[in-house]
Structure formats: C-alpha cells, structure tokens
Amino acid sequence: MMASSYNAKEEDGHNSGASNNGGAGVVKSKKPDNTAFKQQRLPAWQPILTAGTVLPAFFVIGLIFIPIGIGLFVSSNNIKEFEIDYTGVDINNPCYNCAKNFSWNSTTPCVCSVPFTLEQPFESNVFMYYGLSNFYQNHRRYVKSRDDSQLNGDQSALKNPSKECEPYRTSEGQPIAPCGAIANSLFNDTLELYHIDSNGTRNTIPLVKKGIAWWTDKHVKFRNPGGNNNLTVAFQGTSKPVNWRKPVYELDPSDPENNGFINEDFIVWMRTAALPTFRKLYRIIQKKSSTTPTLPSGKYLLEITYNYPVLSFDGRKRMILSTISWMGGKNPFLGIAYITVGSICFFLGVVLLIIHHKYDTRNNSPDIPN
Amino acid sequence: LSGVLQYSEHNIHLNFKQGLAMAREGEDPGMAKASKVKRQRKKKPKENKTRTVHANILYDNAKGEENPNRNYANNKIKTTKYTVLSFLPKNLFEQFHRFANVYFVFIALLNFVPVVNAFQPELALAPVVFILSVTAIKDLWEDYRRHRSDQEINHMDCLVYSRAERRYVERYWKEVRVGDFIRLRCNEILPADVLLLSSSDPDRLCHIETATLDGETNLKQRQVVRSFFDLDCDFDPLKYNGIIECEKPNNDLNRFRGYIIHQSGRRDALYKENLLLRGCTIRNTEEAVGIVIYAGHETKAMLNNNGPRYKRSKLERQMNVHVFWCVIILLVMCLFAAVGHGLWMFQYGDKRPVFDVLSPEGTDLSPIMSAIYLFLTMIIVFQVLIPISLFVSIEIVKICQVYFIHQDMDLYDEETDSHLQCRALNITEDLGQMQYIFSDKTGTLTENKMVFRRCTVAGVEYSHDANARRLAMYQEMDSEEEDCTSHSGTLPRRDSVTSHQSARVVLRSQSTKSHRRTGSRAEAKRASILSKHTAFSSPMEKDITPDPQLLDKVNECSSQMDFMRFHSQPMSQLPSDLADIIDFFIALTICNTVVVSSPNQPRQKVKLTSTKSIQSNLLRVNKGSSSSSLITNRSSNRGCSSLLSSPSAESTLTKLDEEQPPRGLEHSFGPVPPCYNGKAWNLEDGELRYEAESPDEAALVYAARAYKCSLVGRLPDQVTVELPHLGKLSFELLHTLGFDSTRKRMSVVVRHPLTDQITVYTKGADSAIMDLIKPPDTGKRQIKIVSRTQNYLNLYAADGLRTLCIAKKILSKEQYACWLQHHLQAETAIQGREELLFDSALRLETNLQLLGATGIEDRLQDGVPETIASLRMAGLQIWVLTGDKQETAVNIAYACKLLDPEEEILTLNADSQVRGRTAKAFHSNFAPFEIYPSSSPSSSSHTTPFTVLRLGLVIDGRTLAYALDKSLEDKFLAVARSCRSVLCCRSTPLQKSMVVKLVRNKLKVMTLAIGDGANDVSMIQVADVGVGISGQEGMQAVMASDFALPRFRYLQKLLLVHGHWCYSRLANMILYFFYKNAVTLIFWYQFYCGFSGSAMIDQWYLIFFNLMFSAFPQLITGTLDKDVSAETLQQLPQLYVNGQNSEEYKPYMFWMNMIDAFYQSLVCFFIPYFAYADSDVDLFTWGTPITTLALFTILVHLGIETKTWTWMNWLSIAFSTALFFTVALCYNASCPTCYTPSNPYWTMQRLLQDPLFYLLCVITPVAALLPRYTVVNLCLTEYKGQCGFRLVNKQVTLAYR
Fold it and tell me: Where are the bilayer-spanning segments (chain A) (predicted)?
C-alpha cells in the first residue's frame, strides 16, 4: 500500500514538473528529478580521519584543557572554607547531650555551644551554611510531598491542599499550611556565631538572613495568602505542620517581609537538595569595610539551639563558613578533572603520533584482502 | 514459460469442446415454465452452494424485496480499512497488535497507580500518544488515498441497459448490480465479472486482455454462451429470460461453472470461457453484451487482490533479540534497585526517617512491599531503556530510504517509463545482506524478445548475416539514443486509454542507413511505449532482414508453384529442396496458435487482405535522412482512432517497401505519391498484428513474413496465408495438437490447398523432433539433411540460440481416416481422455520428414554479464533456475559469464528412462559427484597450487527432483556449495521455489529471487527478498515481488549501492539507538537517593529527550549517511561483503555499545556529581546540566558516527540543540507553580549565568567520548581492518590512493 502511495506521490510531483517543462500534450514521465537531494548527491563533508586531522584535535584539546584546569584549581584553592560538625555523636561533643535527650515534644529548647578557631581570616563576604549528611531530601516521595499552589498563596489550595501532601495534608481536620513532608521536616536549628576576643568577650557577628533564597523563589514562586498584611488572619483555619513548634506565620515575627511562606529559611529548605549530603545557605556575613577581614582569624563560638534530630537516621549536621568565587564554593574536582582529561588527551596524542609514525611506512603498501 | 501457457491453452481448448458437447446434449426442447419455477424452489435450500442470477430488467420496478439479486454485493468497491467512526477504535486495535505499543501503554497506565507512579500520569502518556497518533495519521493518510482511488474507480462509466429507456445508458461502475446487462465496447475495462451473451464478432468470440489480472499480455478468447451463439440479430436484453445458476464467488481465475436455464427449460452449461473478468480489457471486439454475475468485492479480481506483504528483515530480527536483551537489562536494573531500596528501608528499622514519607493513608510500608512497589516504579523510570521511538524511527527512515530508491535516476528505465518499485517497505536493509541470488533466465537475464536469427532448411544453412548485423545495430545505436529521443518529444504519444489504436503514419522512404537509425534503440523504445499492451511487437522482433539467398529461393519456388498451378501441373514436380523451403515457411506460418489482428481495426479480425494492396498503399515521403520527425496523418473518419503514431508499423512497412524494388519482381511497386487524406487506409488494415502466446511463435511468424509468407487470418477451422506470387491461400485446419511440455512439440493437420494433401506440420524441440524423423533408410537425401541439420542445431545451441525443428508429414487419406477415428474416440472418451489424446498425438507425430530448423535468439539484456560479474565479486552466489532446456541454458550461462570456460562443469542428468527408479538408486548415481568436488581441490593443487579449481553445476529438472528429496538434499547442497555457479534447467515453478526454500532453510542464508514470469512467482514469494522484472511477461511476478525492477542490470545498483546504504544506515542507527537509550543516568542516581526511584532529570526532559531533542539528527543520519560513495560501491563490489557478514551490526557491537553507554553514563553522571558534591545545589538545578551535557554527548557521539556531513546534518544538530534550549527556557519561564515536583521555574535561566554549567558541558562530552574517539581513530589510521565498523572506510581510503 505504501509503495503505491509513493508512486502516486511521485506522479504528483511530476505533474508539476511536466507542466513546467512542456505543454499540455506532454505525457507525464515518471522520470525522477535530477536534483542533488533526490539523487543523494548533496554536497557533503566527508571527514576521512587520518593522522593529520586526528592528532591535532588531541593536542588542541589537551592544550586548552590543562590551563583551564589549572585556573579552576587555583581559584578553588583560594576559597576559604571552614566546617564544623555539631551533631553530637561523640561524647566529647558539646551537643552530645542535646542529641541524646532529643524529643520532638520538649518545650524547652536545648542549647549547646561549639567553640572553634579560624586559623586564617576570611577576607570577603562569608556564607554560612548548615550541612546535613545522610539526609535523603531527594527521596521520590519526599520530593513530591508539597503543594506549590499553596505556597504560592492560592487560597483554595491553602484550605484544600493537594493530595501530594498526604499524609501531611490535614491535621485534626484542618488543612496543614504549609503541607507536605518537606515543609514538615523543616530544619529548625538556630545557629548564632560569636567572635571571642582576645580578652574573652563574645561579640555577636551580624548574620544577614535576607538574600539567601533565589530571587525568583522569594518573589514569584512563594507568596503569602491574602497579601502580607495580617498573616495570622490569612492562615486562619489552617494547622501548623505536625513537627513544627510554631505556625508558619511566626517563623520570623520581626520582619513581615520574611514571614509566612516567604520566609527565606523556609524557601531555602523547600528547594530540595540533589544529594543526600548537602548544605544549605543559612546566613550571610557581609564584609563591613575593605580594611578589616569579614572574619578575622581567632576564636569563635557557635551557639546552636538544637531542635533538629538527625541521629535516628544516622545523619550529621554541620555548620560551614565559606567564601565563594566566580565558580561557586570550594571544589577542586573540576580543576583536577580538566587537568586530567587534558593530560590524557595530550598523552593519547603522543601515543597516536608514535603509532602513526611506526605504521606510516607500512600503510603505503596496503594489504587489504580483496 | 511458453510451454506452460500453451499447455493451459490446450486444456482450455479441450474444456471448450467438452462444453460444446454438453451444451448440445442439453438441448431438450420444451419444458414447462412451471417446472422451472418448481426446480428453482427446490434449489432454494441449497443456495449456500450456488448463486442464482436473474436479469435485473425483469424486476426493474421492484427494487427492494422482490429482486432476487438483492442479496448480492453491488459493484461499489471499498478497499478502505476504516470509516469515520471506526477509524479510532479499529486503528488503535491494530496498533496494539504490536507488542511494543502494548508495553508502552502498560507503562503509561502504570503511572496512574498512585503507589507506583513516577511521573505525572498525563505526561507519561504523551510519548505513547504521540507515537500512536503518528502511526494513526500515517494510516489515515493511506486510507484516504485508497478511498480516493476507490472513488475514482467507482465513478467510471459503463453502459447499462435500462428497461425504462429501452436502451443502454451510462452509469457509474458503482451502480452496476448483479443481473444488469452491460454493453462493452472495444478497449473498455470490464467493471465486473460478466457472462458473455453477445459479441459483435462474427465467430461469437470476444477477446480480452488479462494483463491486469495475470499479467499475460496475449489476448484470450472468450466465447458467447452457447445458447446465444446462433443469434443472428443483435442481442436484445428484453427478450432474455434465462436464469443463471453458478458457483459462489471464489478467487479461482481459471474456474467458472454453472448453467443457464432458459424459459424453455433448456439448460446450457457455462464455462470459464464464457466469463469476462473484472479488470480485463476488451480487445479486438467492437461490442459485447453480457450479464453481471459477480460484482464489486465478489469479483474474482477483487477476491484475488491481496494487500502488501509484511516481511521482517534480518536486521530487525537481530534487533528484536537485542530489544529483548534490553528488557532483561531493564528488569535486572529494576530488580537491583528494588533490592537496594528494600535494604535501604531495612537499615532504618522501625525508626522511620523524616524524609521517608509514609503512604498517603499514613500507614507504614514494610521494606518488602516498598521494594515491590519500587520495582514497578523503576520500570517506569527506566522505560527509556527500551527504545520507544526506535520503532517509529525505523519506520520513518525506511520510508525515506524507499523514497530515495524510488527517486534514483539510475534505476529508471526510459524505454518503459518505469522505475524501481519498492512494494515491500520494511525490508530495504535486507538488500544489503543478500548471499544467494536465484535468477530466472528468460526475461530476466534475457530480454525475452525472441528474434529470429538464422535457419537451416533442407540441410542448407542460411546464416542471415544481414539480420545479425541488424541485431548488432540495436546495440550500437545506444549511443545515438540521446539524439533520437530528443526528437521523440515531437511525436504524438499514445493516449493512455486507447492503447490499442494507432494512427496512420505517413511513411517516408529512406536510405538503409537512416532506416537503421530509426530502427535503433530509441525507436525501439518509442515503439515499445506505444505498443505496451501488445506483446512481442517491438521492431527489433518484427523487422527480420531476410537472407537474400533464401529469399530468392522462396520467390523462385513460389513463382514456379504459381506457374504450375496456372498450368495445372502437379505440385510434386517441384524440386524437392524448393518444396522443402516452401513447406518450411508454410509450417512456420501456420503451425502455431497466433491470432491475427490489425492495429487499426481492432474490432475486426482480418479477413481479406493481400500484400499487394498493402504495398500499393505504402505512402512514401521523401525526406532528408537526418530528420526523424514524422508527419502524422489524422484520420477523421474513424471512430476508434486518434492522433497516434505507430513507428513499428512504419518501419515494417518501410522494410517491405525497401526490399521490393531492387528485386524487380512482377509485384514491385513504384513510388506512390504522398497521400494525406488517409482514405486509402480505410480500405486497408494497415499492418497485421500477431498476438502470440509465446514470443517464439511470434518470432517465427514474423520471420516467415519477412519472406512474404504472411499469416493473414486465422479462424477456428481455417488458416489463411499469403504467399508471394500465389496470393492468398486458405488451409483447412483439421486439427491442432497443442504444445505440451511432455511432447515438447505441437502439430497442425491441414489440408494443403494446392496439393490437396493432408499434411501434418510439426514444430518442436530438436530432441523431440529428431527422434521422430522417418528412419533414414528412406533416402540418401534425407539422411544428409538430418545429419546436417543436427550439425547446425549443435552450432545454434552453441551460439545460445533457442532451436526449433520443423518437420512435416503427408498423410494419405486412409491413414488420416484411420488416425481420425482413433482421435475422435480419444476426444470423446470419458475416462483417461488426456492420456488417450496424448497417445493419439504420438501416433500422428511419427515418421516425420525433417524440413529444417530455426535458431531464435533471446538476447541478453544490457549489462547482464557485467552485473553478474560484479555481483559475483560482491560475494553473491548466483544460481540460475530456468525452465529452458539444458543446452540453451548452458549457452546463455556462458554468454552472461555465469559459467566460465575455465570452469569444470558438473552435469547431473538422470537418465530419462529411469522414471521409476528409486531415490536410493539415484543415490549411488549421485555419489561420485559428491566425492568429486571434495577431492578435486587437493588433486588440482599439485598442478596449480594457487588457483582454486572452480566448478559449475548444471542440473536438470528431473535430476533436481531426486536431488530435492529429503535424503539427498544435504548432499545436493554440499555439491552445490562447492560450485561457483549452479544452473538448474528444465525446472518447474515448484522446483524453483523448493530450491530457494532448501538453500534458505538449510544454509541459513539470505536469498533473493528474481524473475519476470508467472512461473517465478512461487520462488519470489519464498525468498527473503523477491524481485520482479517488470518486463515482457506482465505483472504477475511484479505483484508477488518486494521490489520490481525494469531491468536485470539495475539489480547491481539496487544491491550494491542502495542495499549497502540501507543496511549500513539502519544498522548504525539501531546501534546508536540502543546506545542512546542505554545512557541511563538515573540508574546511578539511585545510589544517592535511597533507591527510591527519584529522578534528578525533570520528567519533561526525560520523556521528550528521546522523542524530540535527540530524535532529528539520528533520523537525518539514518537517512542520508553514506559510508562509501555510490561510485566506489559500484567499483568495488567486494564492499558488499560488509553487509553479508552483518559487519555493521554484530551482536558484539551491541554489547560494545552497551558498555560504551555504561561508561558514558558513568562519566555523565559522576562529573557533575563530584562537581556539585556537598554544595547547596538543588535536585533539578543539578539535573538540568546533566540533561544538557547528556544531550551534547549523544549528539557528538552521533557526529563521530556520521561519515558524511551534509548541511542537513549540521542543521539537524543545530536544531536539536536550539530546540532543547528553547524548550527549556520557555518551560522554565512559563509557570512558577506548575510541573510538580521539579518546579523548574527559572532554573535554566540561572544556569546559563553560571560558569560551572558551561565548564561541565565542555568537559563531560570530551571525557565521555574520548575512548570511542580514540578507538575509532586507531581503527582508522593504524589498525588494519579488524575493527569492523571502519573497515569500509579504510578500504575506500586505500582504494583512492
């Protein structure tokens, strides 16, 4: 059937062709058109790969990649990073007790302080992260357990959250706002950083909590229901997530621009991490003046309000201080990868060159079996 | 083939006579109408067995209930599969027959199960819906085309008798009903199966051409129903009152039984000779009237109409195995993930971590249940591993390949204005993998244009040198082709409908040279276009240049006879050699079943003509020899004619004209002034046209005509021959003993009008005739003739000519009477009539007197030896299976370089007398041959150590029957395999197919069968690829074939170039598909998401990745890529071995690709993994770069695999990239709250500002493709041909050095 349809198709084509060429009396010929496309003679570049064309490619790749790799490696190494694990697994850890005695129901928060020392000053803006390990924020069911419409301030979704939120959709007959497992498991440790002077006084380091979320998240994706005027009213008739100690409209009572669904800590948490070991931006320590480093070297104290249990799933909690460069945080891998690939290319180029030279004389008398 | 045809015709003849006898018996007068009605009622319960047809006009007013024909199908045809309503369900139902579709729908539906679902259910449906709808649209389009062609056919006109108007009125075909009377005019196509009731032909015959049904181009005679035979006046439908009972509609074209019950109660039997079949064309009959018996879909033509065949190609079979492997890999991966998930769950014990979400009901899932659910989820997530788009892509690529094959100019034949047809769409790549070719000889290797070449009469050879030169001329003229065809545009072409008519052409006189020029190939081409519907009538076959010596003798002889007749002298006084000559030509002229017709008056058979009047009307126009434009003469007073030209007629007449004047005979003609009014032609019938059953017959008749012995008319009991000087002679035709393949001869018994003797003329194969020659003791001269003729016969056979012996026998009245008595007994015998007739024929054909022999050349088609040579070089085994006799076949085989003189020929001939021998006895016969080839190489190696002894095997049909026996077939194959070429002669169609089947099944090779005739159909159908030659013998082979070629030599390009390309393109594409789909990055991710079935790649990207983003470049490459150019492939046929050995797609390559995909997926996953390790990247911001770089990797991979870069390749890759980014940017900007769970809002936009993204997109493809690129280069530049996939390129590079 298809074959016949092709016949017809050609005839159609030739109708037009014939009428262009001859008069009405010309019998249409089935002769195919002599076009480059139909005769499969399109001008083509046929790369016959020879040593002459192949080898330069290897060397060029090598020569480009190695410098890039070195550049990346250097810039990664210039990034200063400091990490401190405050999970409290170890008995010596200041947070050991908090970790041990944790219960979701306790009303009094457990506070522990971890002292640490920065050997080198952090010159530019410092980003303060909290890091979690073994926390599978990318679990399939976990990732889905949210309602974006609700988070976007949709009234109907607020009262009637999506089924995806199950089983964290309703609590005691009232819809949960924000619903879902992600919101329910919001990281709720509070971290505060103090600089210990040489004379032992604790100076609070100002931590900026704005600007840690994506601009689009904060201004487009997340919105409080019914405007931002009175969140208590807006969230009337909803219930707080079961694991939360306070409702969503009390996340940051001090700043209405950072309260409710548009609380930046909340937004950051809602952007689920890709890998089970991840960090999330917590605060930014801004450089005050060009002369003094943001964080001079010296003793510091990290005060943690220990609310978030991770030991049950063998998780870890960290606090990370890091500066960033144009390519993000400290990660020497990409630099090393570039150097390695570049070197391999270069090496292969050399090997191929040698092989080629060795075989070149033989190639002139090909012994292809016919 | 001719034998088969003649034989069947013989049967028809017998049946016909039988029919007449029966009809006569049934002529019992006077039966009451009442009894007829009663019988009819009795019949009613039996109606499931028969069909009763009443004339519709009797029931014209009763359209509904009363019309007895109401239950029969009307003539409206509907070949469409769907209606508007049924399209969707029916099409879907058909599509779900394909397992893959069911699988994909299953997966999509799995998404609707909440516990399992991985993607948004609606989205998961998208690919399946897309693919189903693409296929549905394709089907719809096809169906629409069918609908349109149905409409066209349904709205063709025909004349149907209307009772109201008492005349025939024009109706559409679809309005024709069973029981209608329809009137058919010359050249009309039959709208339905019609019982012939009346014909304008005086013999109550109607000629039909059945080319559209069985492809046979000769005319078939159909007979008016016996009881209407004697009607003198025109048939009047109103007087018709019969009732026809016949069999139910069936698809047997050669069977029709029934009877007609007249009002008088008389019953007349009906046979297939009374039935005109739908689709045939009325020829040579001015008008015929019949009653419709079967209409529409119940016609035999429609019942025979089978749809296209679907074959599965070797490559696809191989592919399916690997798809199956993919399924296993998929299941293993799913199982692995499920177990992993179970363990991961288990390690947490009872303490459910906060990120392990409970089921919606809030219940806890046990690790085992969770793992089971996850298994199903993973099937969805990993579904890309099974290439859903592969099947659709393969279909698209194949359609494109078919399109390109269709478009190839080199496969277009100008002569017949036809090009290659791909009738099977899904086996294009099989063309690249052929190992054995089974070819028919006649019509496939040769042109099947039988040309009289030379003859020997009474022991004297007439070499016909001029004729030989003429034939050579046709070949030489090829170079002048362009020259001539450029003028052909000025020729009025034949209207496609009125195919059988040709207009008067004013002839021109010209020098011999210019005549030859016009008789060149271009002329032949034009002529064959014009006379497409008449078989065997190209000028090459018709213009025989007579041997001057023989012509003189003929003239002398006939003038003497004329003289003797004039003086009433007995003819026996004629010198015996001259008598032999005239007898020889008379035998050539009348010993056949050729039907004479005239192209100008196809309605009437030629009754009265004389050469004299033909020649007196030759119109001569003096013209420059360089001009080849023809002045055409419009005849305005002919109803049936139109402005047409007939160069074939022209050239023949010119020939007659040319030959005559120098002879100075009494009937020579001076130039006749040009005459343009065409009046003279009215009296004349122009040129006679011979409709022969086999080209041999036509060739002989044309040859005789060159000697002025023209057959001018044939009636059932009389043959009219025109002889020089003697004028028209009518031979009373007493008997015709038709050709059959056992006797291998045919005879006619005539009463000679001059001598009044009863003469038998016999014509047949030399082996058949020579045994029957009168014992040589009858005279010295006879002995000499026989031995000389035998010599010449051997000579002819060595020249590759088909030989026929002509003999005669004079019967005395008593002998004849004696024989006739027996013969009549045989004819009327009830039991064993066939055998009795056979014996009767044998009795007659004894003690013959040899007259002479003819050598007919069946010319090889152009380029056959070259094609065979290059196909051989390509590693193809070529077997020729022919029905021809051994000598001819061997000679043709030598001529086309199939057999080489250096080869040793093994000939397997079973003794003709050992019919009863058992296969076991044969076994012992066969044993020496079996040992011979195995031992010979060792023995020959002593003398010629470096040349392998080449063997050719020739086996004849009877021996083949033994060789194909179960117990011997393995031995036969062993022998045949060690031979370079195999030639099977005298094989029946069934044997042909058995040989193909044997080789195909036993040797597990790819077979191609090529043939042109009905006897090749079974072989074509059995082979992996069947190729039909759309040549002389019509369409039957073409109908059965997968590919139809106009010429044998096109096979070279079809296989070597298109086959190679199609195979290598498709093989590479399939491999690439497997690779592409196996890059399953998500699998690695499972290790980092607790085997939860989570995907970092947005589900949109995941689903559309293969369907859209990466689909186009591979389609372009799969369609256009050329590993080697067409020229090189033709110059180096050995490159074809690539496909034969499946070197582009070996199982190990699949696994290599899988490993490569494994490696590449590792790289593509882990480079981003480490680059983003322990960062604040979120799931989909991390997944999007992975998608992007996977796309780049896949595209660059394709780039490495692409061997030819056209602008379309570049464009497609650019398009793919652009499409991805456009879609991603639009998608990520469109809706901030939709597309859970990925929430891709602004992700891509942010990524594009991130230098890390670009750095990743550069390094990952490079790292991923480095191994492949290196290996490819190693293979290419250094390695000597052991990496299969670059072997070809290597060879080509070397070839160009």
Answer: 48-74, 333-355
